[in-house]
Design goal:
Blueprint: H1 11-14, E1 54-58, H2 80-83, E2 88-90, E3 101-103, E4 111-112, E5 118-122, H3 137-146, H4 158-162, E6 182-186, E7 189-193, H5 201-204, E8 233-239, E9 244-249, E10 267-271, H6 276-285, E11 293-294, H7 302-309, H8 312-315, E12 318-322, E13 325-331, H9 341-350, H10 353-359, E14 366-368, H11 395-404, E15 411-418, H12 427-438, E16 442-449, H13 451-458, E17 467-473, H14 480-487, H15 507-517, H16 522-537, E18 542-553
Parallel strand pairs: 1-10, 1-11, 15-16
Antiparallel strand pairs: 2-3, 4-5, 5-7, 6-7, 8-9, 9-10, 12-18, 13-17, 13-18, 14-18
């Protein structure tokens, strides 16, 4: 997962926001702001936002694979959402309201069959591409089908998993017949046939794979150089695989068909491959074009944040974002002594979350977590703390449990972590935990691994350690893509990337996941996800540590700052520079 703009169930392999999620993301606090936009929401230069000018985006990571088939984004992404419209999208509002799914190309969130295995969408009137031709339901079908082609891989796996026949389909370049499970009875109607009930299909329909692609304009692997726009901006240049991306207005986009994107600037200039310190320096100085600049992937670090907080003018230009993301300790119950629930509980009690928060950059950049699900309504957040450690750990209770487990003199364990300086699974977090557990008689040896080795090790069923740091971010703001990959026994992968690190295969948990997936009432589903999280939490298979908070600067001329809980970052589609 990357920073929030690219949030995926693989967020755990790349560090938020991806995520988007990444640390995309993805995906980093003092008291949480009520509007979710935080310190800088709605601020910027004074006056009502107007159309015109150039918005500059300064990012560390290039906008690679700028093809709707290859992107792994939810809510339509951020920069991608300016060019690619989808069947549904995220609500472009601050905070909690921004975690809702709303129609985009479609007239509504879709009409499900009684058992949620068939979803029907009707397109709005007046939808056009950048060349003025009409967007049809057949174009959306084709856009989805090309995402199955091996040469255009990289997108989310859900359509392959959910559509009847999807697992074996090779894409339109090899199979021109197409997928029978996607029907287009006319130019404005598209029908999806699923192999099991999926009440959250409206969330999936925000993925860029539902972007329309005109078959006659498809150039395969080079389509990313000039994809045909269905959004308010079109690509005029794409240099070095997204390192420099320039967008200008699509004259055939109509605001009458698009309630979500404001599209104030005349031009969007995306410059990537920059050092994070340089980005923050440029945004802080806010000189020349940088006065009208933002970033979607670069946080303020602890030292930078301290400096900014001491300057009222700079502090007014900091946006605060929250994204569905949890950093936690993971246990492998197949490895001793973690096969004993009392040992896992003891560690849960021994954790000092205050020291962990400090190691993560302080209370402005991290919020303590006692639930696996993020503390947001859309996920079904249900407060619980099964093993209350307080702010600094409960060493006495931990020692008591260790004695009951047959370790009256304590025990020695190894904690695996990443060597990346990401303030999430890094040495700083590991060291804080080492010190806290020592108070409970648990001697912790630290084992740091380089990024790729760390990812390969913790996601290998055969090599997974017993005790390690991990994190997870949301493909969309719901409990489904948060709990199912981690706790559904049918998603255990023995040969490949496995995310069910506890190897939990509980029939009752699996059944409840299936029952919740049948619900098309997203609020009712959220409540059930929260209850399931609380129930699973009793097994102490993880120790939730903290949820990251994103603090990001924006230029002094930027107006209309909107930061939703879906992405956690400034929404480019709402920003103005005039």
């Amino acid at each position: 997962m990357s920073q929030p703009s690219v949030i995926s169930r693989r967020v755990a392999t790349t560090a938020a926001v991806s995520l988007a999620l990444v640390a995309g993301l993805a995906a980093c606090a003092g008291p949480r702001s009520n509007d979710g936009g935080g310190d800088g929401a709605g601020s910027g230069a004074s006056g009502k936002p107007q159309k015109g000018g150039t918005l500059t985006v300064l990012n560390s990571n290039p906008q690679e694979d700028f093809d709707p088939a290859r992107l792994y984004t939810s809510g339509g992404g951020n920069v991608p959402s300016l060019v690619f419209r989808t069947l549904t999208t995220r609500n472009r509002e601050n905070g909690e309201a921004g975690a809702q799914v709303v129609p985009d190309l479609a007239t509504d969130l879709g009409t499900p069959s009684k058992n949620a295995t068939v979803w029907t969408y009707t397109l709005k009137d007046g939808l056009k591409y950048e060349d003025g031709t009409a967007i049809t339901s057949g174009d959306i079908k084709y856009g989805i089908e090309r995402s199955f082609a091996a040469e255009l891989s990289g997108g989310a796996p859900y359509l392959r998993d959910w559509l009847i026949g999807g697992a074996d389909y090779q894409g339109p370049y090899k199979d021109k017949k197409g997928l029978d499970s996607i029907e287009v009875p006319d130019d404005k109607t598209i029908v999806f046939h699923l192999n099991k009930p999926e009440g959250e299909f409206p969330y999936l329909a925000t993925q860029t794979q539902t972007t329309p692609v005109p078959k006659a304009k498809d150039t395969g692997t080079t389509y990313e150089e000039h994809p045909v726009s269905s959004g308010p901006y079109k690509v005029v240049s794409n240099e070095n695989d997204g390192e420099r991306l320039v967008l200008e207005r699509n004259p055939h986009w109509s605001a009458a068909t698009d309630e979500e994107r404001k599209a104030y600037p005349d031009k969007i200039d995306v410059r990537s491959g920059l050092d994070s310190a340089v980005i923050n320096q440029r945004l802080s100085a806010s000189q020349g074009a940088d006065a009208a600049a933002v970033t979607t992937d670069t946080n303020l670090g602890p030292a930078e944040l301290a400096k900014v907080s001491g300057d009222k003018k700079l502090a007014a230009r900091v946006g605060t974002g929250h994204f569905g993301y949890t950093n936690y300790i993971a246990f492998n119950p197949k490895v001793k002594p973690f096969d004993d629930p009392k040992v896992r509980q003891a560690i849960s009690y021994a954790v000092d979350r205050s020291s962990v928060i400090n190691a993560a950059g302080g209370s402005s950049l991290a919020e303590p977590a006692t639930t696996y699900l993020p503390n947001q309504k859309s996920f079904g957040y249900t407060p619980y703390d099964h093993f209350p450690a307080g702010k600094t750990g409960n060493a006495a209770k931990a020692k008591e449990l260790l004695k009951e487990a047959g370790h009256p003199k304590g025990l020695k364990v190894t904690l695996t972590h990443s060597n990346d300086k990401d303030f999430e699974t890094s040495p700083e977090i590991a060291t804080a935990l080492q010190a806290a557990l020592k108070k409970a008689g648990i001697t912790v040896e630290l084992k740091g691994l380089e990024s790729n080795d760390y990812s390969d090790t913790i996601h290998s069923a055969s090599k997974e350690p017993g005790f390690f740091l991990a994190h997870w971010g949301a493909d969309w703001p719901s409990g489904g893509p948060f709990l199912a990959p981690i706790f559904d026994g049918r998603q255990i992968v023995k040969d490949g990337a496995n995310f069910n690190t506890a190897f939990l295969d509980d029939a009752a948990v699996n059944k409840e996941i299936d029952e919740i997936n049948k619900l098309t009432d997203l609020k009712a589903a959220a409540a059930r996800w929260g209850a399931l999280d609380k129930k699973i939490g009793e097994q102490a298979l993880t120790v939730p540590l903290f949820h990251p908070v994103y603090k990001r600067l924006f230029g002094q001329d930027v107006k209309n700052v909107v930061i939703s809980d879906w992405t956690g970052v400034l929404d480019i589609s709402q920003a103005a520079v005039k």
